Every structure is written in C-alpha cells, then in structure tokens.
Amino acid sequence: MKPFIYDYSLEELQQWAIENGEPAFRGGQIFDWIYVKRVNDFSEMTNLSKALREKLTEQFEFVTLTEITKFESKDGTVKFLFGLHDDHAIETVIMKHNYGNSICVTTQVGCRIGCTFCASTLGGLKRNLTAGEIVAQVVQAQKILDERGERVSSIVIMGSGEPFENYEATMTFLRIMIHEKGLNIGQRHITVSTSGIVPNIYKFADEDTQINLAISIHAPNDTLRSKLMPVNRRFPFEDVMESLRYYLAKTGRRITFEYALIGGVNDQPEHAAELAGVLKNMLCHVNLIPVNHVPERKYVRTSRSDIFNFQKILSEQGVNVTIRREQGHDIAAACGQLRAKHMELR
C-alpha cells in the first residue's frame, strides 16, 4: 500500500515537496487542500501543477472510511461504524452539546487492555491505527458537519483502544489536529484518555502541550482495580498515581479521573470514601460513568440512588465530581458495542 497523506504533518509535507524539487510552500498548499478545503482527490488541488498532482497520486492515497452503518440517537448523538481498507471496522461518534460538536475517535482496532466491563476488548487487539486513520475520522465528521454549517469544536480520544499503546500515532494525530493552518482545534478542547500506561504518562507530561489528560481508574485500590482492569497487574495502582503526581508537578494541569460505576462491585459508600482519600489534595476532577450494559458481560448498572450517594460522599470530602451526561444510550454508543455486533454477524 501507498502511505496515507493524512499520516503527514505540515512540516513533513513541506520536506516532501523539497525532496521532490518543489518549494516548501507547496507542502503548505497541500495541507490547506486537505484540511481547510477538505478535498479527497489530488486532481482537485488546482493551484498545483498537473505533474505535481500526478506525483501525489502516484505516491500517496487518502484514507477511505466506508460507512457500514450509522445510528442516530434522540439526543443528537450519531455513531458510525466505518470499514477500513483491510476489512476491519472502527467506531466514531459525533456528540452534540450546547457548546458545540465533540468527536470521539478510535486509536486501535479492538483493544488488549481487557477491562472486564467494556465491549472494546471483545476479540482482543487486531492492530494499531495509523495517525492518518485517526485523522480521517475527524475529517469525515467535519465533512458531515460542513453540510450543517457547523464545525468540530472538541475531540475526545476515548473510543476503542488504548491511545498510549499507540503513542506515536496518537501524538502525530494530535499535532495535525491542533495545527493553526489545518483544522485548528484548540488544545484545551482535546482530551486523551488512558488506562494507565505509566511510561507514556511520564512521556506525555514532558510533551509540553495544553491537551487534557483523563485516566480510567474505576477502582480505589490495587486489588479491585486488578479484577476490573488486568492492565493494573502490569502497571500497579500506586505506580499510576506516582506518574500522575509527576504529571501534575510538570504541567500544573488538572487531571480527570473516569470512574465507571458497576452495580454492587465498585459503587458502595466504602469505595467512595477510599477514593476520596486517594485523591485528597490532588488537582483533579472525577467523572462518574454509570456503566452501559454489555450483553457479553455480567455487570449491571448502579442504581440512581447509589450514583447520587457516591457523588455526595466524594463532594463532601472536597473532591470535584460530576456524573457524566449519558449520550447515545439508545443506540449502543458505548465503546465497542457496534463493532462487537458487526463481528457477530460476519
């Protein structure tokens, strides 16, 4: 296969232009055609010479995301299952908020983290996405929003897969997204979520970005977290917390802790009290997520009263906490659910 044009940053396209006997600004023109004018055919790049357009066609291709299915929720959430060039499938979600449109992107086909309440890990990890395949999800979403005269205002890297196990592609994707000459998404409007890949939390802390960091924690201690998240055996709870303390010291940026509430498992008052003790005096926010029912999993949703009680305990202990607004509940919008159904039917 030829490389994907979306895999290349502006600087790399400028270098490619120079190496092919063109001035560097041609790379900027290509970048503009891709991300501002959003064409998907090199022949449409009309301010480039015919010879250069032919060279681009010979050396690169665009990522093709084939729409396998699409579901629209009553709340405006739209979930896509896209087919890739190699017959794998990924999910991308557009979520409408009162402040704009948020896009949830996927970084891997499947996942190997193994969280016991999540559909993404069903079937394991198939492969990493390239940076361009992650980029293409946002471009595709933006083209859909173009028809409404709207734009992508924020990005969450919380779809299937573990971004920090596909670290370099994820960082390349982020650099392309925030570039002022491209889609120009504000850094503080992007959040990357990890299950706690400790070496790359340190690495991310040293990147000197304003991009938000979220941690899937889901338990207040090692024993319970290892039961829910096998990755905790590789990167124990205290090691994760130590890396986050480094992140806070290095960046001064607030961390979001994602906590999926599972009925009778991690949602009791003693869990809330223990979590409050762990997070005491940390610059952080806890996002409580009532777990979606996954048919292949045995867990049940936490009752409304237990959700509010958990929130109350954290709040009384001085922890900043909210309950995530559920979106797309009626269209199986939890990570991996749509892909899992598609795999069953193949």
TrEMBL record:
<dbReference type="GO" id="GO:0000049">
    <property type="term" value="F:tRNA binding"/>
</dbReference>
<keyword id="KW-0411">Iron-sulfur</keyword>
<feature type="binding site">
    <location>
        <position position="193"/>
    </location>
    <ligand>
        <name>S-adenosyl-L-methionine</name>
    </ligand>
</feature>
<dbReference type="InterPro" id="IPR040072">
    <property type="entry name" value="Methyltransferase_A"/>
</dbReference>
<comment type="similarity">
    <text>Belongs to the radical SAM superfamily. RlmN family.</text>
</comment>
<dbReference type="GO" id="GO:0070475">
    <property type="term" value="P:rRNA base methylation"/>
</dbReference>
<dbReference type="InterPro" id="IPR048641">
    <property type="entry name" value="RlmN_N"/>
</dbReference>
<feature type="binding site">
    <location>
        <position position="115"/>
    </location>
    <ligand>
        <name>[4Fe-4S] cluster</name>
    </ligand>
</feature>
<feature type="binding site">
    <location>
        <position position="111"/>
    </location>
    <ligand>
        <name>[4Fe-4S] cluster</name>
    </ligand>
</feature>
<feature type="binding site">
    <location>
        <begin position="161"/>
        <end position="162"/>
    </location>
    <ligand>
        <name>S-adenosyl-L-methionine</name>
    </ligand>
</feature>
<comment type="function">
    <text>Specifically methylates position 2 of adenine 2503 in 23S rRNA and position 2 of adenine 37 in tRNAs.</text>
</comment>
<keyword id="KW-0808">Transferase</keyword>
<dbReference type="GO" id="GO:0051539">
    <property type="term" value="F:4 iron, 4 sulfur cluster binding"/>
</dbReference>
<keyword id="KW-0949">S-adenosyl-L-methionine</keyword>
<feature type="binding site">
    <location>
        <begin position="216"/>
        <end position="218"/>
    </location>
    <ligand>
        <name>S-adenosyl-L-methionine</name>
    </ligand>
</feature>
<keyword id="KW-0408">Iron</keyword>
<protein>
    <recommendedName>
        <fullName>Probable dual-specificity RNA methyltransferase RlmN</fullName>
        <ecNumber>2.1.1.192</ecNumber>
    </recommendedName>
</protein>
<feature type="binding site">
    <location>
        <position position="292"/>
    </location>
    <ligand>
        <name>S-adenosyl-L-methionine</name>
    </ligand>
</feature>
<keyword id="KW-0698">rRNA processing</keyword>
<dbReference type="InterPro" id="IPR013785">
    <property type="entry name" value="Aldolase_TIM"/>
</dbReference>
<dbReference type="GO" id="GO:0030488">
    <property type="term" value="P:tRNA methylation"/>
</dbReference>
<keyword id="KW-0479">Metal-binding</keyword>
<keyword id="KW-0489">Methyltransferase</keyword>
<dbReference type="InterPro" id="IPR004383">
    <property type="entry name" value="rRNA_lsu_MTrfase_RlmN/Cfr"/>
</dbReference>
<feature type="domain" description="Radical SAM core">
    <location>
        <begin position="97"/>
        <end position="330"/>
    </location>
</feature>
<dbReference type="InterPro" id="IPR058240">
    <property type="entry name" value="rSAM_sf"/>
</dbReference>
<dbReference type="Pfam" id="PF21016">
    <property type="entry name" value="RlmN_N"/>
</dbReference>
<dbReference type="GO" id="GO:0070040">
    <property type="term" value="F:rRNA (adenine(2503)-C2-)-methyltransferase activity"/>
</dbReference>
<dbReference type="GO" id="GO:0019843">
    <property type="term" value="F:rRNA binding"/>
</dbReference>
<dbReference type="GO" id="GO:0002935">
    <property type="term" value="F:tRNA (adenine(37)-C2)-methyltransferase activity"/>
</dbReference>
<feature type="active site" description="S-methylcysteine intermediate">
    <location>
        <position position="335"/>
    </location>
</feature>
<feature type="active site" description="Proton acceptor">
    <location>
        <position position="91"/>
    </location>
</feature>
<keyword id="KW-1015">Disulfide bond</keyword>
<keyword id="KW-0819">tRNA processing</keyword>
<feature type="binding site">
    <location>
        <position position="118"/>
    </location>
    <ligand>
        <name>[4Fe-4S] cluster</name>
    </ligand>
</feature>
<dbReference type="GO" id="GO:0046872">
    <property type="term" value="F:metal ion binding"/>
</dbReference>
<keyword id="KW-0963">Cytoplasm</keyword>
<dbReference type="GO" id="GO:0005737">
    <property type="term" value="C:cytoplasm"/>
</dbReference>
<dbReference type="InterPro" id="IPR027492">
    <property type="entry name" value="RNA_MTrfase_RlmN"/>
</dbReference>
<dbReference type="Pfam" id="PF04055">
    <property type="entry name" value="Radical_SAM"/>
</dbReference>
<keyword id="KW-0004">4Fe-4S</keyword>
<dbReference type="InterPro" id="IPR007197">
    <property type="entry name" value="rSAM"/>
</dbReference>
